[in-house]
Amino acid sequence: MRKVRTFSSDIDLVKERRSHIVKTAVELIVKKGYNHTSTRELAAALGMSTGGLYHYIGSKDDILYLIINFTSDLTQSLLDNCTKCNNGSITQHFTECIRLYLTGVEQYRDLHNFINHVMLSLSVNDRRIVYENESRIVAYLEKVLTEGVKKGEFRAHDCKCLAHNVVAIANAWANRGWYLKRYYTIDSYIKEQTGALLTLLTGASDPVHVTAR
Amino acid sequence: MRKVRTFSSDIDLVKERRSHIVKTAVELIVKKGYNHTSTRELAAALGMSTGGLYHYIGSKDDILYLIINFTSDLTQSLLDNCTKCNNGSITQHFTECIRLYLTGVEQYRDLHNFINHVMLSLSVNDRRIVYENESRIVAYLEKVLTEGVKKGEFRAHDCKCLAHNVVAIANAWANRGWYLKRYYTIDSYIKEQTGALLTLLTGASDPVHVTAR
DNA sequence: AACGACAGAACGATCGCTCGGTAAAAATGC
DNA sequence: GCATTTTTACCGAGCGATCGTTCTGTCGTT
């Protein structure tokens, strides 16, 4: 957890301002790209001056770090929510995990696009944080799938690959939304993908529709 | 097809130099990001001066356009190759399309990462070119799948979604290669994904391994 | 009077890009 | 075929703009 410089000693104020900075920066950067978003513009969008902005951050790159850290928090709360709903069959649990994951992506679509965009601008350390976030999600899904196979509820040839595919499908909703939104809502997308996955996992002879929720 | 300014009238030389520029620029930008790659650096990497570089391009953004155009050519040749191998069963054709697509992604992984990275830096028009490339691939795959369903070879609930998933899986190989390369080679990845897709499509009760060439 | 949040002018660095110059090659004249 | 002019690929110093960042000053609160 790297330190980000601030000239304020009011912890709550720093947290509030930085939260505002993260939110506004993501919006701007997704719209105009990182390099075309100047600190002046960002400050203006925040209703501050550049000096005021630098009261709460140490450098422009710190903003990236703050955003990355914010996504780490989101990942953590996603995994927490997934754990919480583990009280029915594994099929139900898996279905709910996918629903939680994908609705989360939909809710923070800008953020996911942002991550993709700035990935190559990140320092090696910051990049690792992003990697670890995704890895944790894959690992969780893989665990659920493996458990399902062990209990005979699922049949799968490669749980790791399927877990990865869920992440790929989720990323696609963010990256390729311009295309998908012509044909699907997030709900119909979830329904379709869940159906396909469960067909594969349970070997139903006909594609089934599982009520996602 | 936008025009890119040049001060040379030697068409072949322009083509050669620009090809060199595209290749070198992708390498540099993937390594350092677009904004951190200056025209000076690029010129140095090309063994030229900035003045010499601007002999063949009109602006830095033109480089992006040239790269985007290069990927359009790649997409076209991919689709051509797919069409060429349509001489067996639809299953064989579909399998071969996936193999061609994914090996192409592997071959130009830098380029695919690049596209993802600069997407938000692109002008609206250039963005559309990228979108159309992906759309054409999805459309082709969807056509193959629909044909397979019509002929009774495949069973699928939503061909469009499955076609999109292939693209998502291919993009994932480029974007998430840092993770996948720990566990798969491109060949084993193709094998695994093809197997899963065909299991879903043909409804085999056990995951089958299709020899992907 | 002291402090902290913020403003905004100013600085140094770097950027994309231009432009006058050069040396070699091609075209031209005789 | 040689000399001269024109063209062309390329160089690199330099321009103007903009960037990230700093720093001094202001104003309201304590």
Give the helix/strand layout:
The structure is a homodimer of 213-residue chains.
Chain A: H1 11-32, H2 39-46, H3 50-53, H4 60-84, H5 90-107, H6 109-118, H7 124-150, H8 159-175, H9 177-180, H10 186-202
The structure holds a DNA duplex (30 and 30 nucleotides).
User: Residue share in helices of chain A?
Assistant: over 70%
Which whole number gives the mean pLDDT of chain A? 92
Just name the CATH architecture of the largest domain in chain A: Orthogonal Bundle
Using only C-alpha atoms, the radius of gyration of chain A works out to: 20 Å
3D shape of chain A: elongated
CATH superfamily of the largest domain in chain A: Tetracycline Repressor, domain 2
Distance between the termini of chain A: 37 Å
Assembly context of the chains = homodimer
What is the succession of H and E elements of chain A?
HHHHHHHHHH
Quote the CATH topology of the largest domain in chain A. Tetracycline Repressor, domain 2
According to CATH, what is the class of the largest domain in chain A? Answer: Mainly Alpha
Low-confidence stretches of chain A: 205-213
The largest interface is: A-B, 49 and 50 residues
Major sheet attributes of chain A: none
Q: Which labels suit this protein?
A:
0% strand; DNA-binding; Tetracycline Repressor, domain 2; Arc Repressor Mutant, subunit A; mainly alpha; homodimer; disordered C terminus; 10 helices; 2 domains; 213 residues; elongated
Structure description:
The structure is a homodimer of 213-residue chains. Chain A has 213 residues and is an all-alpha fold. The first copy, chain A, has helices at 11-32, 39-46, 50-53, 60-84, 90-107, 109-118, 124-150, 159-175, 177-180, 186-202. In chain A, helix 5 (90-107) crosses helix 6 (109-118), helix 5 packs antiparallel against helix 7 and helix 5 (90-107) packs parallel to helix 8 (159-175). The first copy, chain A, is elongated. The two termini of chain A are 37 Å apart. The model of chain A is unreliable at 205-213 (pLDDT under 50). Chains A and B meet through helix 1, helix 6, helix 7, helix 8 and helix 9 of A and helix 1, helix 6, helix 7, helix 8 and helix 9 of B. The structure holds a DNA duplex (30 and 30 nucleotides).
